[in-house]
Amino acid sequence: MHPLGKRKAHLYRLGVGSIDLDKVQMYELEETFQHQGYNPATYENDIALVKTLQPIKLSMESNVNSICLPEPKEKILGKATVTGFGLNYLRSTNIEELMSVEVEVYNKSYCSHLYKSRLRRGMFCAGSKKGGRDSCQGDSGGPLIKRNIDGRAKIIGVVSWGIGCGRKEYPGVYTNVRMYLNWINKFVKPQTSAQIVKPSKHKQVQQTSNDTFNEECLKSHNEMRRKHSSQPLKLDNNLIEVANKLVIDNYYEFIMNKDYGQNIARYYGVDPKCEQVVQLWYGDRTNYDYSNAQYSSQSGAFTQLVWRSSTKLGCAKKAGQSGSMVVICLYDPSGNVRGQFASNIYNEMRLKK
Q1: DSSP string covering 266-314, please?
Q2: Which DSSP helix (H) or strand (E) runs through 31?
Q3: Among 213, 220, 224, 319, which Cα is nearest to 266's?
Q4: What are the Peptidase S1 domain coordinates in residue numbering (predicted)?
Q5: Dihedral of CA 131/107/111/163: which sign?
């Protein structure tokens, strides 16, 4: 359903948490945001956001989680996966179980050759040159996803339109998400994303005490912050308590419109020292562009870690399923505040030895 913004939010429900339509968790919507430039005749700017009435709890152990946005200049060509509950071919009926198919993202010249002037700015096409792999009616608004080498998923496209389904001469057309990052960021408060580390083999993990772990985290954080002229953090019992609740309840939640920033990591088969975790987050500094000081999903862990205005820290970790270990650190006040990056992220100091 494309003209989302012209309908009232209370007419919709958002279902999450299951590949079975009968088992999804339903959330009422508070507000919908259709792109102001949406054209129903051409499907230009075919993108929208929704805000739920109640926060959605994201779980490390369940089927509900966040997804990363692409970088502004990121290359999106190659294999990607599209999912949806729509038709599995043009004259079929809608299905009750979420389907997925791998498609090939094509370059602009190939898509323009097939669709001529119908392919507008902010669109790309994806499918199979043999046919049979495509999104279809009922999939509109669904995600086209690529995965990083570290396993993190990114939404690169949104199912928009096409001619038929699965036709080799007419691959599906998608809204190019990276062309709309500025628009998205007007509505979405940026938060750092979960990071996953997977060794080749699982082994049983053993957990250090929470007090010791927090002391290690504080030391490691302040060592990294010192490199960027950021004031030392102090441990805060309230943040530690909240962080422990998040991992004990086996979920983490992006805290919207509150003062807590957060960094999260998940390890498999190892009980990481906090120094290792902090180094993982700090490694995102290579993706931060000091000349264009703004939030990026690829550097958000680093920018929160060294954010100058953050003064308090609280961390926790817990052994999860399949030999995993979840680590979360909370920060107060929150970092990654839009418009404040230049004053909060200083380039690394070159200290004299």
Answers
A1: EEES----HHHHHHHHHGGGGG--GGG-S--TTTHHHHHHH-TT--EEE
A2: strand 25-34
A3: 319
A4: 9-189
A5: positive
Structural domains in the chain (count) = 2
> Measured between alpha carbons, how far is 174 from 123 in angstroms, rounded to an integer?
6
- Say whether both 9 and 82 belong to one domain: yes
Two tokens at 113?
Answer: 């050759």
Q: What average pLDDT does the segment 319-328 reach?
A: 71
**Residue 351 within a domain:** no
Does pTM top 0.85 for this prediction?
no
* pLDDT over 80 at 61, yes or no: no
229 assigned to some structural domain: yes
Task: Give the domain range for residue 16.
Answer: 2-185
- Structure-derived torsion over alpha carbons of residues 65, 106, 118, 7, reported in degrees to the nearest 10: 0
Per-residue model confidence (pLDDT) at position 352: 38
Rounded to whole angstroms, the Cα distance separating 294 from 335 reads 12
Quick check: 70 and 118 in contact, CB under 8 A?
Answer: no
Most confident of the following: 70-74, 137-141, 331-335: 331-335
Same domain, 126 and 258: no
Name, in order, each residue with C-beta under 8 angstroms of 294's C-beta and a sequence gap of 6 or more: 338, 341
158-213 pLDDT, tens digit each: 999 999 889 989 999 999 999 999 898 888 755 444 454 444 444 443 445 678 89
Q: What percent of the chain has pLDDT over 90?
A: 43
Tell me: do 49 and 135 sit in the same domain. Answer: yes
- Same domain, residue pair 39 and 76: yes
Is the domain of 10 the same as that of 68? yes
Same domain, 296 and 175: no
DSSP state of 135: -
| Residue 152 binned pLDDT confidence (cut-offs 50, 70, 90) | confident
Dist. CA 303–CA 126, nearest whole Å: 34
Q: What percent of the chain has pLDDT over 70?
A: 81
**Mean pLDDT, the chain, whole residue set:** 82
Residue 86: which CATH number? 2.40.10.10
Last residue of a domain, one of 141, 170, 185: 185
In a domain, 115, yes or no: yes
